[in-house]
Fold:
Amino acid sequence: MLDSSLWEILPSVPALYLADMASFHPLVTQILYNRGIDTHVEADSFLNPERTSLMDPFLLPDMGKAVGRIIQSLSSNEKIAIWGDFDADGISGTAVLVEGLSSLGGEVVPYIPHRQDEGYGLNKSGLEMLYQDGVRLLITVDCGIGAVSEVEYAVGLGLDVIVTDHHTVSSRLPQAIAVVDPKCDGSRYPFCELAGVGVAFKLLEAMTVSLGKSETWDSLLDLVAIGTVADMVPLVSENRYLARRGLEVLNNTGRIGLREMTNVSGLQLGRLTSESISWVIGPRLNTAGRLAHASLAYQLMVTKSGKEARQLAVELEDANTERRRITDVVWSKARAQVATSGAEALLLIAASEDYHPGVLGVVASRLVDEFHRPAVVMRIESDVSKGSTRSISSFNFIAALMECKDILLQFGGHPMAAGFTVSNDKVGELLSRLQDIAARQLAFANLKPRLTIDVDVRLRDLGEETFELLKGFAPYGVDNSEPVFLSRGVEVVSMRSVGKDGGHLKLELRDGGRTWDAIAFNMGQFVAEVTSELDVVYKLTKNYWNGNETLQLNLLDFAPSV
Structure:
């Protein structure tokens, strides 16, 4: 629980803004204002994103060159390989391009490297194998922007390379036929936050225009939604349309692998949300690359066999259970290591030769969630060490790693989540320099977690109509969080501990004669702090149980009323 003084209630809507938005419900207007939406036109576009919000794919760097080379390949029946990253974004983007280019008549094969054996991005042995297999055009997905030497090697073999990526450019561009990345210097694309799968989708859009076809590729949007949400890119602008329309497709998907996955994992088609991807689908797809081979997740997406779909879904479910067990073991050790070295340090560091390489990022995320400080979790190997980083909004890890690139063998990722490889003789220097950077950037930062609240409202004033109004703000994700409410002086009718070892609290709350069910996940240890009247901070959700559907408060925090 947080001290209620750390509850940050966003300012009320100015009268002039309220007048301009008079056609919207006042609650909707407040949340729009909180999201920085300034005009009625912007509000309409946000609440009702349409296909017209998709941007011109030819504004992306080198898109014309990429399309021209692919058309040449299709015309000459060249074999094309799609080289994807081993996370949910790269896997889904690989499936998008393989299916899309195959439907245009291409002979297309996927290649996703093994995380432990080959590492991130392009590698020479994989390039050699593809060339020997007859591939002459290689297209990357969600990787390649930093693979300068690897692309040079591929070209030397006789491969033409098209890079599609969305990561920050950390060095000079690879000498590929085309480098399609909205973050390239000089890009004219209006939105730079596409996921890797989003860039792949834009490539197919450009192909459609150039070939004079009418294909909208809507059948691929379930994959686009999965990769976009799972990669935690901002769910605004074009990503908002791709995720929302993609969720509609996903909820009616004909992909038997995804249908089996939802069934095995306890989800239900028709009720899938962005949270379903973030907390259930994405982690299971990522688990394939963490513990086994990402090709398992890829095959689940594309299989036409019901038997294989079921087998793969069960295999991924079992792998995810094992991944959670391994994560708990590594987390326990890393947390103890951080506590020993000082959990109040500005940069948290945990390193061991025993840490499983597939869960470093997950453990780093947990450290950030608990201590609200940037974290590095490293596995020390015989000659090199590999690390994953997770961060907070006030610390850009990619920028920090760029300051240290002279001693790094490899690095890449995003400001909030990145990875690196460093030789063991440079580990001490790297960590020292990162600590100095953190000290410089975070010296005056407020590192106490704050709970941002959209609206202070009476609980009695909310109901089914409120939930219907809020649907327009979904899907939720980075830069578009689910609305959070504060209600004061709520009566506690009953309370009990639920879940494994009583880890959660189930409450019945009353305000103005109306009773609400509420659930406080992972707050079982605060049972003694529940008083007869509470101020509660919560999200308004639906609970589905035994065929019944009821409104429920998902409590984020609470404090005794005063």
Observations:
- The two ends are 17 Å apart (CA to CA).
